[in-house]
């Protein structure tokens, strides 16, 4: 029986790997996800035959409650809220790993094997950090908590001290495997604290990194639990997810030209919204109307849209799609340039535009479109700022320096829809606003685009 | 179950390499579904929690196990469904369908 179980687990693991592999193209991605679902179902059904299980009442209760909550949340969540939803799901996965670790300890009769006991403690630690860290990330993204980083003196020292205390308690628990309850419970408390404290100093534009990282943690927690239970499917799946989260965190960090350590401890953007333009000298900005914009767009052959998170905040993605369609219908070449950090999680902007029925062949990642701006008549920036700021190329003392940006400034005309001249998260004024070829269309993204649609239709 | 630590570590390391190979091929276009999908896969802890909840060893282990089953199921069901919902929206340009 055990052999059959392990073989089915192997099949499940293969389904997970194939599922992730099919995610490499939007044509096969949906099938990939369904394959992973089947793998999961196989693993679950097989486990239910395990001879250790003698009572199904609580299993059924847990499954029904969890499935109902999962089903409901997945149905009602808005695409703009996807980052916090993923953070929350993620947290529950980590929390489950921690609970399994504790439950396993309570089931132990006699002294546990050293290696499985260490894995159990690590699973408990990482799982708890994931759960509470994800809850904080959720609260920040959902607006329950202020999004800006919370920083205080000795923050890193305190976190290091907590980590050290957890290690010491872990060693004590390993040395007293039969009487480790208190050690384990204090580890849970300190891990809770560490999970909360390590996420609160991260905010704003850095959220995509922390979500990816928490994703990775939940995988690692599952893998540790797998070590403790000597269950290969848990180890394999945990490793896959751990790798995925690390890769995504790395991509996000590179897109901001920052190291992971800098994101975790740097707390950039703590003065969110407070700083005005750095230089106080008065620079001239010309204010244009939707009519002015429409005249230029009528004449343009090619247009690249550069959407940023401001677009999603203004709920303007559907109007943008309508507007883009009008331009396409008039024979213009329309494309969308997506910066890796446009949105609140990796790839978020693509999902928002897909929801608005923008075909994915029109969505281009930065490296594939950046050389085309110079041959483009109009670049239209909507709700984005830092990712277009040319300062990133030149000004060495700027927080943006070295960050890869979209070469919007190379287009024939740059149109920027923005509420005001305020700088982005990095607090750096954008010289693009003051250039001669730039047309500033001040206003709410949704209103301005609606206006443009109206004018173009006339 | 007599899997040794070395065997477990071997499986773990190989899976990490497979993960890196497979996941670096996912285009940025699909990074959000990748995350939520991978997320759902990490809900595999459900397998461990089912045994904790059903083995009926102690009250504590059953209670912890049951809550773990519920948590992991939220992760699995929610994660897969939300991923499916997103992937359903990705469409090609009209007329370009093969």
Percent of sequence in beta strands of chain B: under 5%
Describe the main β-sheet of chain B briefly.
Answer: none
Helical amount of chain A: 55-70%
Tell me the overall shape of chain B: flat
What is the quaternary state of this protein?
heterodimer
| pLDDT averaged residue by residue of chain A | 89
What form of chain A results from the Cα inertia axes? elongated
Distance between the termini of chain A: 73 Å
Spatial strand sequence of the major β-sheet of chain A: 3-2-1-4-5-6
Extended strand count of chain A: 6
Radius of gyration of chain B: 18 Å
Low-confidence region ranges of chain B: none
Output the helix-strand order of chain A: HHHHHHHHHHHEHHEHEHEHEEH
Biggest chain pair contact, residues each? A-B, 112 and 85 residues
Question: DSSP helix count of chain A?
Answer: 17
Low-pLDDT sequence parts of chain A: 269-280
Structural description of this entry:
The complex is a heterodimer of chains A (458) and B (98). Chain A has 3 domains: 1-76; 78-266, no CATH class; 290-457, 3-Layer(aba) Sandwich (Rossmann fold). In chain A, 58% of the residues lie in helices and 7% in strands. Chain A contains 17 helices and 6 strands. A 6-stranded parallel beta sheet of chain A has the order 3-2-1-4-5-6. Mean pLDDT of chain A is 89; it is low at 269-280. In chain B, 73% of the residues lie in helices and 0% in strands. Chain B has 4 helices and no strands. In chain B, helix 2 (31-42) packs antiparallel against helix 4 and helix 3 (45-54) runs antiparallel to helix 4 (59-89). Chain B is flat and about 60 Å long. At the A-B interface, helix 1, helix 2, helix 3, helix 4 and helix 8 of A face helix 1, helix 2, helix 3 and helix 4 of B.
């Amino acid at each position: 029986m055990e052999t059959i179980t392990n073989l089915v687990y192997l099949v499940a693991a293969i389904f997970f790997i194939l599922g992730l592999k099919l995610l490499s193209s939007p044509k096969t991605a949906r099938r990939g996800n369904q394959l992973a679902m089947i793998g999961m179902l196989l693993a679950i059904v097989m486990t239910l035959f395990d001879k250790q299980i003698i009572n199904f009442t609580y299993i059924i209760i847990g499954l029904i409650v969890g499935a109902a909550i999962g089903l409901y949340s997945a149905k009602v969540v808005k695409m703009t809220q996807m980052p916090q939803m993923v953070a929350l799901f993620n947290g529950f996965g980590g929390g489950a790993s921690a609970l399994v670790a504790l439950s396993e300890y309570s089931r132990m009769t006699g002294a546990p094997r050293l290696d499985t006991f260490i894995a159990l403690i690590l699973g408990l630690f990482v799982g708890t950090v994931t759960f509470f860290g994800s809850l904080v990330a959720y609260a920040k993204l959902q607006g329950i908590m202020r999004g800006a980083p919370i920083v205080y003196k000795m923050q890193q020292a305190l976190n290091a001290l907590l980590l050290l205390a957890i290690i010491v308690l872990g060693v004590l628990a390993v040395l007293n495997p039969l009487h480790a309850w208190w050690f384990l419970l204090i580890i849970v408390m300190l891990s809770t604290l560490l999970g909360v404290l390590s996420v609160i100093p991260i905010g704003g534009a850095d959220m995509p990194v922390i979500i990816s990282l928490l994703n990775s943690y939940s995988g690692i927690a599952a893998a540790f639990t797998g070590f403790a239970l000597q269950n290969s499917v848990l180890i394999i799946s945990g490793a896959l997810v751990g790798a995925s989260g690390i890769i995504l965190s790395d991509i996000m960090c590179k897109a901001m030209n920052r190291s992971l350590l800098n994101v975790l401890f740097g707390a950039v953007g703590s003065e969110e919204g407070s700083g005005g333009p750095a230089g106080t000298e008065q620079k001239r900005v010309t204010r244009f109307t939707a009519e002015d914009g429409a005249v230029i767009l009528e004449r343009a052959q090619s247009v690249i849209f550069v959407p940023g998170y401001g677009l999603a905040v203004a709920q303007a993605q559907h109007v943008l799609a309508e507007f883009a369609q009008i331009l396409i219908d008039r024979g213009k070449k329309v494309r969308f340039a997506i910066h890796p950090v446009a949105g609140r999680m990796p790839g978020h902007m693509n999902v928002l535009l897909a929801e608005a029925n923008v075909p994915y062949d029109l969505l281009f990642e930065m490296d594939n479109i950046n050389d085309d701006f110079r041959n483009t008549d109009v670049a239209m920036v909507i709700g984005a700022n830092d990712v277009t700021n040319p300062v990133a190329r030149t000004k060495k003392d700027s927080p943006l320096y070295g960050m890869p940006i979209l070469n919007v400034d190379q287009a024939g005309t740059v149109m920027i829809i923005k509420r005001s001249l305020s700088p982005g998260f990095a607090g750096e004024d954008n010289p693009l606003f003051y250039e001669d070829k730039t047309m500033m269309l001040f206003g709410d993204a949704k209103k301005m685009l609606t206006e443009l649609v109206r004018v173009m239709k006339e | 179950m007599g899997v040794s630590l070395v065997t477990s570590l071997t499986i773990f390391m190989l899976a990490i390499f497979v993960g890196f190979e497979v996941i670096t091929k996912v285009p940025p276009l699909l990074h959000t579904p990748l995350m939520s999908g991978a997320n759902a896969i990490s809900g595999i802890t459900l397998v461990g929690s089912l045994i904790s909840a059903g083995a009926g060893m102690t009250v504590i282990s059953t209670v912890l196990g049951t809550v773990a089953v519920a948590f992991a199921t939220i992760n699995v069901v929610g994660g897969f469904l939300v991923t499916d919902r997103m992937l359903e929206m990705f469409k090609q340009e009209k007329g370009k369908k093969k």
